[in-house]
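Our consortium's second objective concerns turning raw sequence data into structural hypotheses that experimental partners can test. To show how far this objective has progressed, the report includes one record in full. It was chosen at random from the queue rather than selected for favorable results. The single chain below, 374 residues long, was entered without modification.
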Amino acid sequence: MEMNTAASRPRTSTRDQAQLQRDLEAWLQQHLPGARISALASPESNGMSSETLLFEVGFEQDGAEQLLRCVARLPPDASSIPVFPVYDLHKQFHAMRIARERSAVPVPRMLWHEPDSSWLGAPFLVMERADGEAPPDVPPYVFDSWLLRASPEQQMQLQDSSVAALVRLHAIGLSDADRELLNPAQDGASPLRRHVAAQREYYAWVCADGIRHPLIENAFEWLDANWPREEGAEVLSWGDARIGNILFSDFKPSAVLDWEMAATGPRELDLGWMIYLHHFFQDFTPLVGLPGIPGMMRLDAVAASYEKLSAHQPRDLEFYALYAALRHGIVMARIGRRGAHFGESVLPPDPDDMIPHRAAIEAMMEGSYWATRR
């Protein structure tokens, strides 16, 4: 899920890929006798919290040679300092299947979920690989990318089609079994209360080393003091709802990816995340003397687009955008620790400096951040 604004990709895995390839091929032959797989590859610019493996499977079916392009996802190895305490691949697999089967959103076809850790040393899932191009994280797409070079009209087409994908996902009907699977396990009087409780628990896990972040704790207090009067209906929440997790073709989504943060909650959870995560990148552009894409993901424009497509008027988006920045701040605090563990960075004297967007969070709590971004 996480993003890195540096030019180089941080270390995320300690596994031996040659051994993974042999073990994965042995497992696949249980499902496709005689299957052979290509050398494993990893995505170049996006998706660093789970381990993602790209490969092709050759096999014979009805006397003809077949080729299946696949993606496998595994939880990170424990020695790589994982970003999250738990990687629920069962939930990811079924959330993606629900989205694919009950909406017109382009979600990759789910092939297998293997809960048995004996094959690869961890549970894993395999899906069909989709075509398309994502706005990259490394370097950020607002620094240099096909999206940066697109026309303003094409950029708005990409934005509106991404919002439309959220509308379709949020329209999916959920059963009690779906909610039981997707709901955060923490106590709470509402889906949003449970969601925030889960984030408090995540923050406590990150800070188990004794390093605390006053910025994050103040932001939690701000949430409590500014809680929405009406939370809205409970819907399927994609979770990591940002354009960097979408493959595009002709500026329209061809695949919606990375469901490890899937849950249920108000629609605005996804909207706040999609809006703020663009501004997370955009806020760095003045530091490197680049214009970026300041016209994208404006608060009011995204709200208007969503309302036009769904008849639902988004509410309290400044609250949800701050909650997105807070959640991302916890992730970045964990990544800071991981970087120090691998010798890629040094822990700063002020723990809040591990959070690269601390100024944005502070400005949101002061009420000044969105004045020029609406």
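The partners drew two points from this record. The first helix runs from residue 17 to 31. The radius of gyration is 20 Å. Both points have been shared with the crystallography group to help prioritize constructs.
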